[in-house]
Design a protein that fits this description.
Mean pLDDT: 88
Low-confidence stretches: 1-55
Shape: globular
Number of helices: 7
Strand content: over 45%
Distance between the termini: 31 Å
């Protein structure tokens, strides 16, 4: 984002700050809102959240700010790795989300929608959810992260194929001070953050934060390039990463205005393209920004409203070097992609009928700029050739859901959404869920839903007419049982059938949308809290994913295990957080099986502030396990060796010190 755009964003935040002083809102009863609407609320009492989890048509999972601090999570990828049935894959460019049968290496289009306070963060070019240091938020600003598995297209439309992750940010009152933070970490990492939060006497709330990250990185070894001509497989000084973040949020009564900006640059130690040179500079820069304005009010005793306007900007910029340039004189390549969008979303919650809660509304989104530009330069960096293309898309949607309590034991959740894009035929996304409560402690849920994902702009740019919507039909049976007030069991059994996946047709010499795949799985989780402050959570997930050829899917582990335990020490002055994760064996692109791996992380954090000081210290990969992740690279370099896996980091350290002023 250039300086002019950043000034416009700041101006919008300031103008709305003053405008909020004249607005007012009547109270809304959160206990009567379905989970989809409750998720848009920034601060809801724990009891109300727990009730809506019980009433939700799927098995919801929540990670709180206390969990984030206790286990030393630094990015959303860390949070996701702790959640039931989910995992991430790192190719030293991005972290990619996986779970429930999806997670192909370098799959930009994550099938789970990522929201920040109800705003869909996926960019308009790749539909990618940024969950690493390219993400929009520092985790110190997060109140909780909610994961709703199962299709969410009935409410959120495109991208919510297999679930929704909603990040709820903190408010200024959660800090009520200026806070300075400094961090140091392995591989030359440093980070600084300044945050100011304040709740004013008139009820207005303000949160502002800026941060900067700088990681020097280290030299990395890649066996597939272990030849004298490629520096014996050593990538020298090509693992650095920097980012800068800005976030602001203002709320007054029914009005909330927030905006964020991140500028992240990552050097790639890998050789991510068959046409590029190993151990030469290959940089990736991501800029992401958003502005989100929401106003909630009660229009009548049985009708409440939420109006939202949002806009976003994304820029992708890479620089690479080619080894063979004597014929075409093209030594360097640059890719500059830009996306811009805006939209409005109007939701209503109606309680006109006894035992019914209806959520309905409409959304319009205008992806007015989807621009792709590739430039090739000579050894003197003069322009030799330029390829460019521009796309756009406008999407109109309307939706309706109804939660109907038949009696004290039975309820129905039924709904549908219709999305009509300017370049595609319209799509319906229906859902039907039956919820049965034989007792106050036990809830059974059975659901069936259908969802879709539109081809994103890069797919349209790359595959042209072959890029069509991808569909999924999902059925799920979930159980939730409260043994006590502090102990809960959650289990789910699911089946996903995906269709219209792109596969290569040898006869046509092109990709065609004729692929089908299936995933079946089982997930079980047990959570427990003790009065003395001990908290634990453990989960086990089994999945069987088959690809479009009926074979075992790549990078889809059959088994995922998670265990988290935190407890206070030294009269509640210190908290220890122990985390263990098991990632089952999985296949690479060359159908080679990587062994399963168990990892442990250990964190110590201060429970109480001492003269405004607080600190955290984490050890990741506590036992220094050697392991590999599935690589997206499906070609072999001149050595003839496979590069279908990438070595991950061993033991690393991280320390943070905060001071409230």
């Amino acid at each position: 984002m250039n300086l002019g755009r950043l000034k416009q964003l700041n101006a919008a935040l300031c103008l709305t700050f003053f405008a909020g002083a004249v607005l007012a809102e009547s109270a809304v009863d959160l206990t009567e809102l379905p989970l989809e609407q409750l998720m848009l609320r920034e601060a809801a009492p724990v009891a109300q959240i727990a009730q809506q989890i019980s009433d939700s048509p799927s098995a919801v999972s929540i990670v709180t700010a206390a969990d984030i601090r206790a286990y030393g999570y630094r990015t959303l990828a860390d949070v996701i790795n702790s959640m039931r049935g989910l995992y991430t894959t790192y190719d030293r460019r991005y972290q990619y989300m996986g779970g429930r049968g999806f997670g192909a290496a370098e799959d930009y289009a994550g099938r789970i929608m990522l929201l920040i306070d109800g705003y869909a963060t996926q960019d308009s070019l790749f539909n990618q959810a940024y969950i690493d240091e390219s993400g929009l938020l520092d985790l110190e600003l997060v109140e909780r992260v909610e994961y709703v598995p199962g299709t969410g297209s009935v409410t959120y439309g495109n991208n919510a194929m297999l679930g929704i992750i909603n990040v709820v940010t903190k408010k200024g009152r959660d800090f009520n001070a200026a806070q300075l933070s400094g961090e140091v970490s392995s591989h030359g990492g440093q980070k600084q953050r300044a945050t100011y939060g304040k709740r004013f006497d008139n009820g207005a709330d303000l949160l502002l934060s800026v941060s900067a990250l700088d990681i020097k990185g280290r030299n990395l070894y890649f066996p597939a390039y272990d030849t004298p001509g490629t520096n014996n497989g050593i990538a020298d000084n090509l693992d650095s990463e920097t980012n800068k973040r800005v976030f602001g949020k203002f709320s007054y009564q029914g009005l909330t205005v927030e905006g964020g900006y991140v500028d992240r640059k990552k050097m790639l130690p890998t050789n991510p393209s068959e046409s590029t040179t190993f151990n030469t500079p290959f940089s990736v820069r991501d800029e992401n920004a958003f502005l989100n304005l929401a106003y909630q009010t009660t229009l009548a005793s049985t009708l409440s409203s939420q109006s939202r306007f949002y806009s976003g900007h994304y820029a992708y910029d890479t620089w690479r070097e080619f080894p063979d340039y004597l014929i075409d004189n093209e030594k360097y390549g640059r890719r500059e992609y830009h996306g811009q969008w805006w939209g409005i979303d109007q939701k209503f919650v109606g309680n006109w009928f006894i035992d019914h809660t209806m959520v309905f509304g409409f959304e319009f989104r205008n992806d007015y700029r989807q621009q792709f530009r590739r430039t090739y330069l000579s050894p003197e960096k003069a322009v030799v050739e330029v390829f460019s293309d521009s796309l756009s898309r406008r999407t109109g949607s309307f939706y309706l859901t109804d939660e109907y309590w038949i009696n004290e034991h039975w309820s129905l959740n039924v709904g549908a959404r219709y999305d009509d894009a300017s370049d595609l035929a319209g799509n319906w996304s229906p859902r039907l869920a039956v919820i049965y409560k034989p007792t106050v402690q036990t809830t059974l849920k059975a659901s069936y839903s259908e969802a879709f994902r539109m081809p994103h702009a890069y797919e349209r740019f790359s595959y042209d007419g072959s890029a069509v919507p991808e569909y999924v039909a999902a059925s799920e049976l979930a159980l939730q049982h409260e043994f006590t007030r502090n102990m809960r069991l959650t289990a789910s059994l699911y089946n996903y059938d995906r269709s219209s996946l792109l596969i290569y047709n040898d006869a046509l010499g092109d990709y065609v949308p004729e692929g089908n795949s299936r995933t079946q799985g089982l997930e079980v989780e047990l959570e427990r809290m003790w009065e003395n402050g001990i908290r634990s959570r453990g989960s086990l997930a089994w999945q069987n994913a088959r690809d479009v050829y009926g074979a075992e899917a790549v990078n889809s582990p059959h088994v995922l295990g998670k265990f988290n335990l935190s407890f206070p020490m030294f009269d509640n002055r210190l908290r220890t957080g122990l985390e263990a994760q098991y990632l089952g064996s999985r296949l690479t692109l060359e159908r080679r099986r990587l062994a399963g791996v168990g990892l442990a992380n250990l964190t110590f954090s201060s429970e109480r502030k001492w003269h405004g000081l607080s600190a955290s210290f984490s050890i990741r990969n506590l036992f220094d396990r050697e392991y590999e992740a599935v690589s997206p690279f499906d070609w072999r370099p001149d050595s003839g060796l496979a590069q279908d896996s990438l070595r991950m980091d061993g033991r690393t350290y991280w320390f943070q010190l905060n001071v409230d002023l």
